């Protein structure tokens, strides 16, 4: 705990008769302290707001200096070590020690996810790195930005450039506008004009939460963030626990190839918001926390505006919806790591049990849903369970949003029957890109690995892919062609996991690093890699380390001629 400054000496632990005028460690800079106080203003100094306050400093000064972090620690009554370890955990914070040169004012982040790599992001990165003045512009590789449909993508400040080229980037730099480009979306007035929030009002006045829960189960709605747990059952688990209870929205869709949540929010954010408030009503949540990834600055801006509109309209009490901003950590897509981040800590997954439905935010029962799931909650409540369960295809019931990118003619998000095969998905995306022949596909993000083109008959849904050593996950479909290397694609995926491992457990932290080194060899040591995959799968704490070996295992199984 930080200590108050007082004009009394501190007793030396060794001599007992010597004193010093301040605590050990970095001294407090009075000017930095005044700047931090002015920036925070009357904002609460609660521990859980540490990351929000770090964002304030980063946005204002464009880096986090050691004196400012020391001042923030003093202001929040935290140790410098605690503030430093949180700030250094997240990729979007730039820490600068005394004597170090701060980064340039402008940073260009070049996405290096699989879809962007296929679209030429590595050549773009090299061109930018060699063509920019490093004293004025910093060029970084960055993980997926959720814009795989417009690859390759870069971010300049908070502005994204789609299908980026050096010429486009130069033009934006010359213009000097690095703010996010706001999408055209349905605002509160337009949404209410077509009956928006009428169902929420009806349920609040005379609704039965168990009937709504049964409706979700009848519709067949399952968690669409990747886990696939029946959504209605969660409500009963959380509601059965003593209050206070919370609701947490996982808006951190960081799985490379996934961008369906972004598309929903950029078009119709209030369908999601109504679904969230219905779920909060059902479990009698005291607060709704929305954890939104920092890679979506436009969505963060529009949500702030629309949440304020909800408060002004009396649909949500002031402060009831608490919007939290991520800081660049894929691991925070794991629900317990997200909760740690909401609490202002490093995003490190918790050991379970207990589960977050029992011990979640601030150790209270917490209902966790992702954005797309809550979108469907509102749709089902408004239109009935048949909006999902009336669709049957390949003996599978329901609908799924597939994020489709890679070697297809028209990448995008496609709403298709849940029993769709990769053939159906590619057809919806306009077929293969010109000059490309279908070779392989990633069915659900890098965690799902790669399947060969001849496995084009398997429905891309829950429970259908497990017999083939993979899963649907977030339905992030990346299509590869005869011009692509499955081996290189797997290496791209493992490099991502190596970079994004939280480092908590050795099997994941060291396993991803060793796997990348082994995969760079001219010929893979299959026996050693297989043994490493088994250890990672069996011993990793969370799904990142457990699923990271899938690209290796499936490439060895289906593309052995390449390794």
CATH topology of the largest domain: Rossmann fold
How many strand units? 19
- Can you identify the CATH class of the largest domain? Alpha Beta
Main pleated-sheet profile:
5 strands, mixed
Strand residue percentage: 5-15%
Give the overall form: globular
In which range does the helix fraction lie?
40-55%
Distance between the termini: 53 Å
* Strand order of the biggest β-sheet: 16-15-19-17-18
Question: Structural class, from helix and strand content?
Answer: alpha/beta
Low-confidence stretches: 1-13
Average pLDDT works out at: 94
At CATH level 2, the architecture of the largest domain is 3-Layer(aba) Sandwich
* Contiguous helical run count: 23
Structural domain count: 5
């Amino acid at each position: 705990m930080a200590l108050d400054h007082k004009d009394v000496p501190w007793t030396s632990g060794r001599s007992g008769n010597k004193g010093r005028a301040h605590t050990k460690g970095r001294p407090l800079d009075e000017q930095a302290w005044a700047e931090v106080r002015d920036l925070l203003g009357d904002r609460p100094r609660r521990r859980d707001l540490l990351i929000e306050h770090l964002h304030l400093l980063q946005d204002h000064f464009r880096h986090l200096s050691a004196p400012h972090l020391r001042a923030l620690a003093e202001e929040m009554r935290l140790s410098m070590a605690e503030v430093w370890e949180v700030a250094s955990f997240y990729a979007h914070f730039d820490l600068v020690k005394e004597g170090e040169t701060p980064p340039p004012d402008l940073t260009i982040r070049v996405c290096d996810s699989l879809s962007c790599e296929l679209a030429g992001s590595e050549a773009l990165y090299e061109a930018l790195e060699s063509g920019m003045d490093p004293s004025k512009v910093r060029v970084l590789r960055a993980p997926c930005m959720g814009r795989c449909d417009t690859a390759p993508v870069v971010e300049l400040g908070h502005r994204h450039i789609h299908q980026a080229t050096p010429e486009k980037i130069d033009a934006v730099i010359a213009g000097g506008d690095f703010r996010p480009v706001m999408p055209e979306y349905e605002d509160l007035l337009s949404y209410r004009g077509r009956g928006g929030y009428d169902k929420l009002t009806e349920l609040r006045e005379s609704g039965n939460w168990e009937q709504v829960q049964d409706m979700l189960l009848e519709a067949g709605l399952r968690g669409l963030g990747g886990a696939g747990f029946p959504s209605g059952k969660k409500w009963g688990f959380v509601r059965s626990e003593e209050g206070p209870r919370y609701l947490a929205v996982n808006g951190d869709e960081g799985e490379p190839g996934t961008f369906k949540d972004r598309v929903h929010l950029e078009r119709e954010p209030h369908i999601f918001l109504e679904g969230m408030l219905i779920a909060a009503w059902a479990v009698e949540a005291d607060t709704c926390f929305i954890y939104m990834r920092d890679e979506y600055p436009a969505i963060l801006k529009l949500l702030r505006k629309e949440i304020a509109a909800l408060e002004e309209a009396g649909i949500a009490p002031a402060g009831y919806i608490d919007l939290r901003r991520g800081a660049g950590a894929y691991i925070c897509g794991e629900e317990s790591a997200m909760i740690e981040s909401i609490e202002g800590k490093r995003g490190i997954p918790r050991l379970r049990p207990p589960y977050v439905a029992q011990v979640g935010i601030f150790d209270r029962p917490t209902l966790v849903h992702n954005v797309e799931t809550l979108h469907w909650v509102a749709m089902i409540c408004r239109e009935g369970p048949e909006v999902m369960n009336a669709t049957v295809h390949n003996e599978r019931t329901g609908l799924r949003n597939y994020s489709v990118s890679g070697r297809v003619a028209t990448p995008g998000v496609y709403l298709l029957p849940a029993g769709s095969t990769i053939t159906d998905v590619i057809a919806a995306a306009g077929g293969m890109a010109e000059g490309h022949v279908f070779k392989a596909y990633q069915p659900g993000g890098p965690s799902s690995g790669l399947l060969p083109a001849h496995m084009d008959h398997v429905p891309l849904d829950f429970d259908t892919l497990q017999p083939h050593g993979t899963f649907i996950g977030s339905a992030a479909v990346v299509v590869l062609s005869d011009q692509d290397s499955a081996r290189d694609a797997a290496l791209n995926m493992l490099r991502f996991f190596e970079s994004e491992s939280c480092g908590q457990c050795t099997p994941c932290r060291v396993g991803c690093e060793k796997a990348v080194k082994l995969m760079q060899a001219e010929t893979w040591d299959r026996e050693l890699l297989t043994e490493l995959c088994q250890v990672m799968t069996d011993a990793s704490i969370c799904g990142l380390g457990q699923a990271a070996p899938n690209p290796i295992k499936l490439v060895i199984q289906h593309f052995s001629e390449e390794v």
